[in-house]
Design brief:
The chain has 484 residues and is mainly alpha-helical. The protein is 48% helix and 4% strand. Helix 13 runs parallel beside helix 18.
Length: 484
């Protein structure tokens, strides 16, 4: 090959990369973002796209004499934490509610991802009277091991809350997840939808009547992993908001008013649901002109003013490359969740006769929010200083050494011999080779404040994917991928 031909190929390749970065394939990213959940499944697995995973956790709940199989592992470990899992489920359901048409051919797969969680959450809520199971697996033992889910040999302890050791936070989020999912299944499986909603009502009543934070009672079994740092009032508001949306019963409006809270919020996450609840409830004011919900519209817009970079009341930092930067650890979880709220509220504003609001002198239109959301999504998909997609399997330049046990260890399909608790550290965890299994669609923690990503397996704050990071991205991807 001549030098000139070689240079032309290099130029063509670079232009191709630029084209991908400038024109993201939202539909491809959307499909992959949903496939990711297959890689996080616990329980007996059906044939699936992520074929390197096998069945696991088949005795979950047996120590408590109940069946708690199913559900999702939260991140790169092998524990089922219900607080983030239920939040993941709520966001996936909200994505369907707002974007059912735009999801297009991905709608059945998204419903399937939701049902994998709700089948498990129903077991947790209904297995034992006066008891809500809130997780399976000893996190302290699990985090000392580097082993595949299929090889787990750590204690699969089942944790729960009761009237005397309450967990209003995890119960409120579970109620939200079940209620939101009941809307998703209302027209496709009416009996399942009714079961979800009746259970959501019961769990919300449990959360309201027996108040307390699950962190206070379960201690090191959930902390520092998923401590309820923001308390439980946000989950009560969130849960009541979703049950109200699913029922339209005035009883829940009174319940919402009795909860209150959520001033000066500039975050939305598995721990803090205030902003999400405000946006959810603001729709009644914006679209339905019901000023009973006017306070939530005002709080939702105050939140947006704290996010927008040109707002005088903004409390949100951005990197030089344009990425929203909230926290150093797993920053993209906040980017995707806030981006979800941006696209959702933008949609509500557009429906409300092109509603606008102001942040000081800044006039905010639906496009203001949507453009910021698109910038965040495009950054994640490769329009960033490192020209790297932070979604595994999307594009050609993406993280190859993610902090994920199943992805980093040989698949049971090619290495059937058990890899024990410490057997995975050498050479896999500490090695520099790319992961042998591609966790398609996984969105990692993301780059640092300088737009740099090291792609190191041991750097979990940047290289670990989570279900809730992905769940929040499904809605925005659908919004940009689909036709109205």
């Amino acid at each position: 090959m001549s030098l000139s031909h070689f240079l032309l190929l290099v130029i063509f390749f670079n232009l191709s990369l630029l084209c991908v970065q400038c024109n993201p394939d939202y539909r491809d990213a959307l499909a992959k973002s949903i496939i990711f959940f297959q890689g996080q499944r616990s329980g007996h697995l059906p044939p699936q796209d992520i074929s390197w995973r096998g069945s696991s956790g088949l005795s979950d709940g047996s120590l408590a004499g109940v069946d708690l199989t199913g559900g999702y592992y939260d991140a790169g470990d092998n524990v089922k934490f219900n607080l983030p899992m239920a939040y993941t489920t709520t966001l996936l359901s909200w994505s369907v509610i707002e974007n059912s048409r735009k999801l297009g051919p991905q709608l059945p797969a998204t419903r399937e991802a939701i049902r994998w969680a709700t089948d498990y959450l129903l077991k947790c809520a209904r297995a034992t009277p006066e008891r809500l199971y809130v997780g399976v697996g000893d996190p302290n033992a699990d985090h000392k091991c580097w082993e595949r889910p299929e090889d787990m040999d750590t204690a699969r302890t089942a944790y729960y809350v009761t009237p005397t050791s309450p967990g209003s936070d995890v119960a409120g989020e579970t109620a939200a997840a079940l209620a939101a999912a009941s809307i998703v299944f209302k027209k496709v499986d009416e009996s399942y939808s009714k079961l979800l909603l009746s259970t959501a009502k019961d769990v919300l009543q449990f959360a309201m009547q027996h108040r307390g934070s699950y962190s206070d009672f379960l201690g090191s079994n959930v902390c520092p992993f998923y401590c309820s740092y923001s308390g439980y009032t946000d989950e009560l508001l969130w849960g009541a908001g979703w049950v109200y949306k699913a029922t339209n019963e005035t009883y829940y409006v009174d319940l919402l008013k009795s909860v209150g809270g959520g001033e000066g919020i500039d975050i939305f996450s598995w721990d803090n649901k205030y902003a999400g609840a405000h946006v959810l409830l603001a729709k009644k004011s914006l679209v339905n002109n019901d000023e009973t919900f006017g306070e939530y519209r005002q709080k939702a817009e105050d939140f947006m003013c704290k996010i927008l970079p040109d707002s005088p009341s903004s409390t949100t930092k951005y990197t030089a490359g344009g990425l929203m930067y909230k926290m150093g650890a797993s920053n993209l979880q906040y980017v995707t969740s806030i981006t979800f709220l941006l696209t959702t509220y933008s949609k509500y504003m557009a429906k409300a006769n092109y509603h606008t609001f102001t942040c000081g002198k800044l006039v905010v239109t639906p496009e203001t929010l949507r453009n910021l959301a698109r910038r965040q999504v495009d950054y994640i998909l490769g329009d960033n200083p490192m020209k790297m997609s932070y979604m595994v399997g999307y594009g050609t330049n993406y993280p190859k050494r993610i902090h994920h046990r199943g992805s980093s260890l040989p698949s049971v399909a090619v290495h059937s011999e058990e890899i024990g608790c410490e057997g995975g550290f050498q050479p896999y965890y500490y090695g520099s080779n790319p992961n042998p299994n591609t966790l398609i669609g996984a969105v990692v923690g993301g780059p640092d404040q300088n737009d740099f990503f090291p792609d190191e397996r041991g750097d979990y704050t940047h290289s670990e994917p989570t279900t809730y990071t992905n769940a929040a991205l499904v809605g925005p991807l659908a919004s940009f991928a689909g036709k109205s």
